[in-house]
Design goal:
Strand order of the largest sheet: 3-2-4-1-5-6
Number of helices: 5
Radius of gyration: 15 Å
Order of helices and strands: EHEHEHEHEEH
Amino acid sequence: MKTLILIRHAKSSWKDETLPDRERPLNTRGKNDAPLMGKVLFEKNIIPDLVLSSSAKRAKKTAQKIFFDIYGFMESQVHLTDDLYFTGVPFHMRIINTLFDTKNTVALVGHNPDLSKLVDFLADKAIEEMPTTGIYCLDFDVNSWAEVARHSGTVRFFEYPKKYKEIR
């Protein structure tokens, strides 16, 4: 079995409109939501073998707040790539289908609309739009990442910050 964790970056700031899109930082809400969702993920006892994050600042900071601050991962355990920056479902599928099979649980930290479209492509049922810092966890009954295909994933859970702010 393979497990894919898709995480949309936390809420970003539009305060400085002169910044290039890739350089937008997290805003205050994003800085609070990322660790909250990191705790939610950690409490589910899901530990990724590999974390790939878009190299955009907001995605990188989201990955750091979740996997460095909550999981205690080292910097070398979170791999930054331009390949997750608005490249579309076909390119994301190429990344997934070429993952090393020794990695059973993989987290991707990226952007919308790509991630919502990717979940919709992979899931065995209709999904909700992914809000900022939303997390979809999909399980695939396969032995190889190369076998992951359209509608082959089962949604294990969908978590997002507002769900937890209403409870706590």
